[in-house]
Amino acid sequence: MENNPVTPSQRRFFLTVMISGISAALAVAAGWPVWRFLAPRKGAGAEEKVGVTRDSVAVGNAYFFNFRGQPAVVLQTRPGTYAAFSAVCTHLGCVVKWQSDKGEFLCPCHAGRFSADGTVLGGPPPKALESLPVALDGDMIFIG
After folding, report:
1. Do residues 109 and 91 touch, judged by C-beta distance below 8 A?
2. Does 45 score more than 80 pLDDT?
3. Which long-range contacts (CB under 8 A, 24 or more apart) does 99-103 make?
4. Contacts (Cβ under 8 Å, ≥6 apart) of 85
5. Are 51 and 141 in contact, with CB atoms under 8 Å apart?
6. Do residues 54 and 140 lie in contact, with contact meaning Cβ atoms separated by under 8 Å?
7. Which runs of consecutive H residues, i.e. helices, occur in 39-65?
């Protein structure tokens, strides 16, 4: 049997290939979540709508649901008048709660307050709740 010692240049080449492969795998593993965050969601097109029955939303009350993977809310401010908003606070992303006795939304994280039309009443939120389009068709409310 022949004993072939490995030369330093062969060892260096092998280590370079191994370290490069491991580095590439780590870069892909770290970059994949960033790519998924920045890439548009599948099915988040303009055609996506959510239907809610009018009976689900009493006057002065709110109905929470998921819209495009995020919490949303529809409320009936006056008989036959509906408004829909993202239920995510614009400050830190907490889900707002509807206070029917006060007629306003409250963010439980930092006491941000929003009116029934989504505008900021007080607290740290920098802007109003995102408004969602509402369409009525018979006894259904379509959001989106």
Report:
1. yes
2. no
3. 100/60, 100/61, 100/62, 103/60
4. 72, 73, 105, 118, 129, 130, 131, 132
5. yes
6. yes
7. none
Report helix, strand and coil shares of the chain as percent, to nearest 5: 25, 35, 40
Instruction: Report CA torsion sign: 134, 57, 107, 42.
Output: negative
Token pair in block for residue 2: 């022949």
Fold of 50-143: Rieske Iron-sulfur Protein (2.102.10)
Residues 13-42 have pLDDT tens digits of 999 999 999 999 999 999 988 888 887 666
- State how beta strands 134-137 and 140-143 pair: antiparallel
Longest dimension (CA), the chain: 95
Provide the 10 A C-beta neighbour count for residue 38.
Answer: 7
The span from the CA of 128 to the CA of 34, in Å, is 27
Tokens of 48: 């996506």
Tell me if residue 89 falls in helix, strand or coil. coil
Q: Which two tokens stand for residue 52?
A: 């809610």
Residue 72 neighbours by CB distance under 10 Å = 23
Evaluate if residue 46 carries a pLDDT over 50.
Answer: no
Q: Under a CB-based contact definition with an 8 Å cutoff, are residues 129 and 86 in contact?
A: yes
